[in-house]
Amino acid sequence: MRIAEARAADAYRRGLWVHETLADSLRDAARTTPQRTVVVDGEVRLDCKTLHTQATALAHALTSRMPAGSVVSFMLPNWHEAAVVYLGATLAGMVVNPILPSLRDRELQFILSDADTRAVFVPATFGTHDYGAMLERVTAAMSAPPEVVVLRGNGAERGHTPYTSLLDEPGTAVLPVLNPDAVRMILYTSGTTGRPKGVLHTHNSIHALIRQIGEHWRVEAGDTFLVPSPIAHIGGSIYAFECPLLLGSTAVLTDRWNPDGAVSLMRDERITHMAGATPFLDGLLAAAERADTRLPDLKVFICGGASVPPSLIRRAAGYFQNAAVSRVYGSTEVPVTTVGALGSAEHAADTDGRPGIADVKVVDGEIRARGPQMLVGYLHPDDEVTAFDDEGYFRTGDLGRWVDDDYLLVTGRAKDIIIRNGENISPKEVEDLLATHPGIAEIAVVGLPDERTGERACAVIVATEQQPPDLAGMRDLLLREGLAKFKIPEQVVVWDSLPKNDAGKILKHHIQATLTSEGEPKCR
User: Fold this and answer.
1) Is 376 found in the same domain as 318?
2) 3-state secondary structure 288-299
3) Is residue 364 situated within a structural domain?
4) Residues 158-207: pLDDT tens digits?
5) Does the CA dihedral 347-351-352-358 come out positive or negative?
6) What pTM does this model have?
7) How distant is the alpha carbon of residue 436 from its chain centre?
8) Are 26 and 84 found together in one domain?
């Protein structure tokens, strides 16, 4: 899949695609507004000139190490250094690959190998996890390991490169002229096969996305985004790295979600915009009520992900009286497919909003979308075989219908994916690992509605003659296998058999319907 010539020409004609890149925007910002703050991370405030200087130094270091077009991965919390890495790799003509810090050995090794990563940036430690030790294990198992660059720590004892040493290298390499239609980002998303798929975006597909946000989300130069969503997601990355340069905003980063701390930060920094999954809005509303503040500077809150309760949108819109609060719909493949309904409180709560620059249709109940912000393809062409229809629409696998002609309502998913706290979980990946337990004869992992997290993962087990694992045993097994913690089921239910069709396929929608009708499934 690549964008058809006619649609590319239309994107250029509409100004959604341009001949400049983010590298040009960074250079222009450093020249015209050198002292404007673009990124805030605690006590660190990066202005345009400093960001350009550091990113340029890193770009020279990368260019001396690898050819343009190489993949540079970073597995970082929401830290200001990530902006330097993102923009340094962009200046050097590399393909950036953000990776969730919550992933562990198994997933990380797959991504680094699959993307053929040449350098990966990681924290020495974050929380209680030793990333240096993890990278030592992962790279030892790879035939062509990447260079490991360690932030906020040395790492030299493991043969890793200190981040600060790259910024201090003499900059003699010539930086390339960039093609705005070239792939500049690869993001991995869970698929129904259990194998993550590499989603490819260009400079221009991201540029179109940012133009859409600026037009529909009331963004003005001088506005400020709070960014608690992971910068390894398409959402977090654009609010943190793209909007500050393309829309003139400032990104205030937080590496841990603390609702009460967020309210204080929003007051101090006069935050105007925030976007995130249901738990972010729910937590923020409760914290603002505790602090007796309506956050008067907040203009827009965009809420996406699975199971956004209409009642939450209404309560938040009623409380944050100066803010438009709306549901939206999108994916890594077609980000911000709908832009919400900022002018209609009813549609903002009860639907997922209007399409923006994307062309959306519903075919036999399935939502399909195409537009200038969509992916140009997957890393592996095999993943594209059934991903697009004959007209180039991306087949989302989500089900929906139109409301009042203009508004899209997502009603469910044909794809077997669980979205918990905004994170995609492939049930098959978890099932394949748990099926190795001698106490499990059959297993199905399903998503159930959850007011706090959107969905929760429940493992439904048919036991062998041996004792099946309880929650603690299941957790221990999956952690030993190197699975990320957020993918571990929160419930386990033991049944005598699993419902199946005549072909032997497990009927997960029957399982979900039974568990939902029974109320809270019994936890073990």
Assistant:
1) yes
2) HHHCCCCCCCCC
3) yes
4) 999 999 999 999 888 889 999 999 999 999 986 555 689 999 999 999 99
5) negative
6) 0.89
7) 30
8) yes
